[in-house]
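Narrative progress, year one. The postdoctoral researcher (J.K.) led the effort to move from monomer predictions toward full complexes, under supervision of the PI. The following entry was the first complex the group processed end to end, covering 652 residues in total.
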Amino acid sequence: MSQTFRCGDSQHTVALKLRGDEFSGEVDGEPVEGHLEQFGEGLYEIDVGSGAVQVHVVRDGRRTWVHCRGQAWELERVAATRSGEPEVASDQLLSPITGKLVELRVAAGDSVAKGDTLAIMEAMKMEHRLRAPRDGAVTQVTATAPGGQVRERELVVELEAE
Amino acid sequence: MRRVLVANRGEIACRVIRGCRELGLATIAVYSEPDANAPHVRLADEAVALGSAEPVESYLNAKKIISAARSSRADAIHPGYGFLSENGDFAAAVEEAGLIFIGPSAETIRQMGDKSAAKLLMQVADVPVIPGQDGIVEDNFATVAEKIGFPLLVKAAAGGGGKGMRVVEDADGLEAAVEAARHEAEAAFGDGRLLLERYINRPRHIEVQILADNKGHTVHLGERECSVQRRHQKVIEEAPSPALTPDLREQMGAVAVAAAKAVGYRNAGTVEFLFQDGEFWFLEMNTRLQVEHGVTELVYGVDLVKWQLRIAAGEPLTLRQEDIAPRGHAIECRVYAEDPARNFLPSPGRIRRLREPAGPGIRIDSGIVEGLEIGSDYDPLLAKLLAHDATRADALDRMAQALRDYVILGPTTNIAHLAALLRHDAFRAGELDTHFIETHFADWAPRALPLEALVTAGATRSGSGRPPTTAAGRDPWSPWGGQSGWRQGV
């Protein structure tokens, strides 16, 4: 029984047994044991052998946020795979942000040259341009009309496979 | 002056509302739809809805704001920073409506808002300016650019805050830069006019705070060093600047006061300079309260917001230049909802947990509370963390500790990046310029997830509720099997 978390580009598998305030198990295949105590709502003190530290944890569905040693991370619980995160094909251009689609300059069937601005997005007053990574033909564009919202990692433009 | 409408949102609206309350003034907040439950709305005595999230329908809508002031019987409007704070037409409309605009006159705002006209005015007042084309460049960008030489800076005549600004390294990049700057300037200010000027390659950004009353009594409150920037927006500010000697401070202060007097300045304002190798040039004057005003307040022991209110109410400025002296060192970190590891992309989301640092010499100007949804409609500034101590080194240590204690879960923030900036040897040594982040932190990545964080995440169940101390099931020690209490992987 274990859980796998994705954090940015890396993936970690955690399997633990708890006995009172003591825990033991494996993290990424390495044995781990120590002391874990809850102090309040989502606040823990943990010692894995290198001194006690405080950890804040909030969970919502598949997402977990943790704060520890002055830094915060967002984790997503995923089904365990051997190779980590699925690779995004280089011909799919995803929105780097959640924000407004200001302008969509191409339609399916258009030919684009490397460096062309394909779409302009805006969030928090900053403009983000999606540029063609190479020459190619557009096979598909987002169904969102300019003025509408696009989510982070949502497909905006797809280029024909090379 | 009894009732003040605060025409802004976020931390600055909260800051201004608190200042008003301390002086016994009633406060009226305004808000857009997504801000209906925002802290500034709760903090004010009254609040008036403006409209949808779009700034033009809310915080940039002068008509709606003035009509909100009328309906709420406000007699003065504080514009905060950004939005309408440097809009001369707005200041004029406020006064035409019979209300007090808490800031300089509409004419001063217009004079300083037009960057090319301001530069000419400053030249006349013997304020040193950056070499460049005098006035708006309408066409023949290439010819003007050749004359000034590369690298050069394309910037919006109506600009500020880095919007509508592009550095051009050579002639090939000119056309694209002009197009991008114009597009951004039109979007941000509704004014796409552009200026070209020499690009100073390794400048510090140092600015001088001034205060002036209605009678023209003008003082400066020293400088702020604001060189640590990303995408032309400030990230860390401090006072005093590690680059200035008392002599230079006095010189720059005197120039700033002369600049303010040249336009008959009234209220709080900031004269921004580029500084390199002991030389300094006028950059622009911000005719409003600055985001980073807090470091000046800590070091000089003044309350700039209260002075703004008092001056607007017609009171004389009782500070005398000879009595104004800095005490210790203050530093401010701007906490943004953005991801420094991904080119500072904005990171909206709900504030899932908020634990603020505290202690001697710590100040937080915050616009957030736990549970607040950070949208993508406005600037990603969440809060400003300030630390004050006897020396620069002490203030940096105090700040480092406060950053470690600052817990914001939900949106990705730049807190760990700020801590890394502070730890850098060049920062500790005060060796700063406006390229500090791109020079030293181009490949910055957050530390890998520590084991403690992973184990705790793996040991807590959904909802973050109960301690993992009770287990049930066949094995009394196994957390896996139970119907109640803690379960794995839910």
